[in-house]
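Q: Structure tokens for this one, please.
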Amino acid sequence: QLVESGGGLVQPGESLTLSCAASGFDFKWYDMSWYRQRPGKERELVAAIRRPGSYTEYAESVKGRFTISRNNDREMAYLQMNNLQIDDTAVYHCNAWGSGNDYWGQGTQVVVSS
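A: Here is the predicted structure, written as tokens:
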């Protein structure tokens, strides 16, 4: 199970940190990713962090602004989002992939508006 939190309404230029709490699987062996679905668009990969180390990858649109991290002891994944822009408005989903399993959270809404 994956449960996201931390979404909300912010103004352009502000920051948010999303959290993803995992349970029910061996977290440290799973790749963790954040995806988002913007209004009227398909779901897209935002950032990923590989197990069990810290190799990361980012969508070009968020490089330098977003940071993904994980805490294997706490079984948590995070997405630090800085300098948020209106185009970052989306539902953000946490994903865990590994051992032939693909888990998704229900999503958390991020709205960036002036």
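A few notes: The first strand starts at residue 2 and ends at 5. The CA atoms of residues 44 and 99 lie 22 Å apart.
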